[in-house]
Amino acid sequence: MAPTVKRLGPYRLFFYAGDASEPPHVHVAREDKVAKFWLRPVRLQSSGRFRPAEIRRIQRLVEEYEAELLEAWDEYFGD
User: Which residue, 30, 35, 41, 43, could crosslink 48 as a Cys pair with Cβ 3.0–4.6 Å?
Assistant: First the structure.
């Protein structure tokens, strides 16, 4: 299961239900590409075949919504 947290333009931001044992993070998908960003602080964990310029755009979005994403993480995983 992978609950969607937010949609931003062509991107779907989500968690995997089994992610609770890892530090807070979000997966960002577009088509067949999926990147992973840690949230405390925001930093790229894996680029998932996105090009560098698009990763920079995505990272700015994740940074912009960091507080909301952390709140969703804590709510979903019960922190």
Answer: 35
